[in-house]
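Researcher: Let's try something more involved. This one mixes different molecule types, so please make sure each is placed in the same coordinate frame as the others.
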Amino acid sequence: MKEAQPKNTAVTVADVARSAGVSKATAARVLGGYGTVSDRVRDAVKAAAKSLDYRPNELARSMTTGRSGTIGVVVGDIENPFFGSAVRGISEIARAAGFNVVLANSGEDFEVERAAIKTLVAKRVDGLIVSPARQSEVDHLKEIGRAGRPLVLLDRAIGALDVDTVTTDDRQAAENVTRLLVSRGHRRIAYVTACDTPTHVYSHADEISTASVRERIEGFVRIGEEAGIGPMAQWIRVGANTPEATRRLTMDLLGSAAPPSAIIASDSLIALEVFKVARELGVDMPGALSLLTFHDAAWTAVTSPPVTVVRQPVYELGEAAARMLIERLNGEQCPPRHLVLPTQLVERGSIGTV
Amino acid sequence: MKEAQPKNTAVTVADVARSAGVSKATAARVLGGYGTVSDRVRDAVKAAAKSLDYRPNELARSMTTGRSGTIGVVVGDIENPFFGSAVRGISEIARAAGFNVVLANSGEDFEVERAAIKTLVAKRVDGLIVSPARQSEVDHLKEIGRAGRPLVLLDRAIGALDVDTVTTDDRQAAENVTRLLVSRGHRRIAYVTACDTPTHVYSHADEISTASVRERIEGFVRIGEEAGIGPMAQWIRVGANTPEATRRLTMDLLGSAAPPSAIIASDSLIALEVFKVARELGVDMPGALSLLTFHDAAWTAVTSPPVTVVRQPVYELGEAAARMLIERLNGEQCPPRHLVLPTQLVERGSIGTV
DNA sequence: CTGAAAGCGCTAACAT
DNA sequence: ATGTTAGCGCTTTCAG
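Model: All components are placed in one shared frame. Result:
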């Protein structure tokens, strides 16, 4: 049945054509599924292809068509469930539309991100979805447009860049939760983020390079100061980008003379560490410390107390980004769209009253 | 400084060559970084490339060299932190070695897996890392070898396939934890897995298509029967592949006339649901129910009680798989290697004594 | 050290 | 409906 092929001899359209007794073009037509061919010839070619164990070369196809059927995705950390869900959403939509996903992990390192984008463009991905590490750097992103590929920004918009974006209403969510905490009597509220500043100390929102986080901080600060519990800058902690760093930082916070009565964690990885430290220190939650986090990670529902969260539709974020990109790939020419998905406050039990 | 290029005119080696006043071959040599070129010419070409905003076409390069600098990765579910970590490990090693990662999510669906592998091979990835959904199906995997690409199996080995594998000592781990539970007096121990059988009921290990899980079940059964608490088949629950299914199944288990005193969860997603259900039902843990899970997911340390787990070196699993693959890509010819990474029992507090 | 020419495997006009 | 003929952008002999 099966003709064994010498391993190193790639079977090409030409081989199949010869074996089927037709021209290369005809064979290519049936193998590539385009143009029109008579049924008889089609069957003959297919048979020949099968018996020769023909395997199409997508690279060659891409060369001539100019489309690779691939989209590049650059995220900060695929290990973070946030991105895990987003990438899953992207993958599903992409697959359904016949696209492959090339994934690059920047580790939130700008240089890695830049290099990744460069190779993805060189590999001729049809388009890119990027969650940029810094909102201050845009050259490498503009490069994508210059190369004629559409770009969709995921979770982190950049004002200086006029492209499609899919984000959540970070600023508003931050405002809401801050307001909530204030209304429960909290006056010492800390905000902890993985983003870092050159000095590892926060002084102004301008220093926060990740757009989504920056907006949250701006919302946090605004409401806090409106409520008269400011200045808020003293309560912002940056650089919680490893469990160890988060731990250290939380220890400092909780061990200080005037510890916060509430902590807002910028992502679930941070919240997890805060939770651990609080427990270790025997700090009662929500009695002595309230905790609230962005990202409704699965585990937040099973702790004691369960953690109150800002639920972000992460999977949908990924889906939407992929859909937008594919629309562009299909020729959509409308001006850049900025999709903002709503978040939802899920009150569970980690917020107390002061 | 920057010459704006007409968007749709891709600059090629030929253009750069012309502009620099050298032959195409010479320009290609400096642009591609191979062969030997005089310093003067090199500089001239580089300058021309920059001013023309030349962007290499990796596709064309791959066409002629036969190497794409890309490795394909097929996993069951990137949303599962288990695979998230593994993929991160793979990505880091790949990046360091100059490879890109094309990720495909099979959703544990065999047909999707088959299709993904087919396109990855057609796209000429240099090699593949796969965590196969079924150990009974090998044709599509053998295809990879026939196409002349190396394959490394991740987390799930397949006996019928003689390729490199990286796994953990699942059987032994299962034996150990079962023994532990027995020693603590448990005689009604359930094992819950996402794997499914055609009938959605377990009767024999042969029906379990995922290699790693099958081995665990075999270990579980063996120790249980040796300890005289068998037959064990009655305690095995399959099909916990969605939160809802897991929930239902756990409800059944805990609501039965003779509920288990201990549950072994095959992955952390399952453990999470079991935990939720137990709490909801007011089942005391570890008093009335003990819980143990495979995969040391981050959250398992913060619940009350914290969950005892079989820690698998997941990130390292990914790293090792990538390393092995890259070795093959570099011409390593040794017979297939089977790397088995050790797991570790981390006792926390979810196992009680009966 | 540099250039000319021949492909890689496929698709895309253009004929027939 | 099918065949002919050019390329796509790059690397790679093989000369010089």
